[in-house]
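Researcher: Please generate the 3D structure of the following complex. Treat every line as part of one assembly.
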Amino acid sequence: MDTYSFDASQALFERAVKVIPCGIYGHFSPAPLASPMSYPYYAASAQGAHFTDIDGNDFIDYMCAYGPMVLGYRNKVVDDAVRKQIKTSGDLLAAPTPLMVELAETLVEMVPVAEWALFAKNGGDVTNYATMVARAATGRPKIVAIEGGYHGVAAWMQGGGHHGVLESDIANFIRIPWNDVGAFERALAENAGQIAGFIATPYHHPTFEDNVLPAAGYWQRIEQLCRKHGVVLIIDDVRCGFRHHLGGTNEYFGFKPDLICFCKAIGNGYPISALVGTEALKGEAAKVFFTGSYWYQAAPMAAALACLTELKRIDAPRLMHEYGNRLTGGMAEIARSHGYHLKVSGLPSMPYLRLTDDPSMMLHQRFCAACTERGAYFTSHHNWFMSAAHTEEDLQRTLEIVDDAFTALAAAQPPAADQAPDADGAPAAGAAPGAGDAPIAAEATEEVR
Amino acid sequence: MGYEAVRARLNLSAVLPNLEDVVRYDPEAAKLIEGARVTIQFIVAGGPKAYVRIADGACTVADGMAPGVRPGRAAKGLPGAKPGRGAKGGPGAGGGAPGAGAASAGAGADASTGASPGAVGVASSTGADGSGGKEATVVLGFASCAHLNKMFAGKGNPIPLWGFTKLKFLTGAFTKLTERMAYFLKPTDELLKDPDYLALNTRLTLNTAAFAVPVLLAYDPDCKHLAHVLHGGSIGVRVLPDGPSVSLLLGPGAVRPVRGDVANPSGLILMRDLQIAGAYLNGKLDTFSAAAKGEVQVWGQIGKIEAVGLVLDRVPKYLS
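Model: Done. Output below.
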């Protein structure tokens, strides 16, 4: 199978770094990709579940713009709604359009917890706002969050040690381990009358780690504790929302939060996020000042209305779960046939995969890079995203790519079949490739301190 | 812990150990200590301690008190020292410190590294000036962390507490040795054109970076938040194709830097060549861009590598 090259991407990046800090910043930065040289940096176009980079390489996209693409790029239903809004009425006007009311009504109807909704642009807008509402409602300062949980890029969300974050930014945030009810109970006891809110994603989907579903009864117990102690329960459904359940991922896991933050899949790529909540918090939400220059854009609201309607019409969560199950099951089987062990975690429509044959992740990074070089866009550090636009043909082509990538990987570095399984049931030894093709000599360590 | 205190620990635990490699790799430096047998103890009142042992043509640097040197006696007369307790420092002051440092982009080029401890020499008690006689001990005292840092910046002198007879060695050979270290740690564009200079500068800067990591994780108020990420496994930092390397052994409890490679690292930072390494370690490279261009490659547990990077980013705050 031929592999791609990325000359145009790299040339453009050379231009970019002269005028843009680090060339490409944030979650689109190539820096966490290993090796970045195996990945496209710039996209030229997209359609359905595919995008084409500026070198002309076509990819079956399993990152889906890191979540926002859920119905497929350039989805006709959504794009027609946007075009119609812009053509007939405009986008950002001097006052909200009726679409804002219509969209709020749609969310209130679709999401059982929601008795009101308001809109912003990014997930971080609404996760931040949710913590402010919780504080306003309780008169308390502290927020409990999960270690490794991602809620955006505001200072408190990034945590201590990151550039630009002050001690005072994080002083009122308590991080506890995922799936640890006892830790929450201790936090409540040690901060009696001080905790305003508990914020977490519906299940734990950090980067660089296996994803972890809630333990049996976890959310129900957390919900009970929040009710007992008057703590506002906030679900950050920014990444998961509408990929597992159209009523919010909490419905999938069987619990009721007070506030839910949505973004990504709500508008199929058009910029909009939403906070929904219970009647009890509506008054406090009204008091917390909340706005932004572009938060009333009508076109993204038209997109969200069309997207939500379409997601419901085609039962998109079921489609994505089914596709994800077939993809990851097929991949795991192909891995086994080559002597490797592929662990799948998270939910099928948003899986995280990892080759457990090498705990350092280097083997897995080489595998993902090899697949990307062959046309299946896989990252090694982040969960993937399924969309309703992925087709049977995409699935079969992806599995062919996976098979070819494992063949190439095994030729370069045969699986270590004689090694003892690690905690995940796979051989543990470090298949450390070193640095791709870089010569890594195993020198004797000289300890100096 | 305050700025001066953290900086003092970096000077003793991350910068001073470079004397070892200066002697090992620079013939001129090695010649300076030929035949010498002397231990030079650094004591900071209320702060860290470290010592340099020169013997058999080699130089060894370690945190804490040199074997056989009693803190209380050694520090007698040092302003701020409590009678009978010597210049007892904070956590890690005594032995083994929180670690030995590390470094990062921009670390090595520490101006302060220039240190000329010998410039103010104190001399030994027991004779030997390197002629093969009994090993001498010299104790240099500092009234505060700021005092030590001034000396490392070439702007202050220590207080001789012990070993006055070794004044000649300290003001002579040892001063020249520290000047030699400073020469290799303070590059100029012109100097970096010399391949031999570049190689040793890179090695020393890499060492400084590695030795700074545990110090900053333990004492820098921002870096302490990153300590929980850095446990389990190891991170290797290597200059390709066959340049120097260091490794960080990640806990439990602390990060331990070592020179060279370790088998099966959890993560790797690979610098394409000495030029890239020099730029990276001297803080002249945008690491995100360099990664995207393949000049710096990261492999393995990138979450831990990112945490190391955040720590290394703090080094210039103290050592530039």
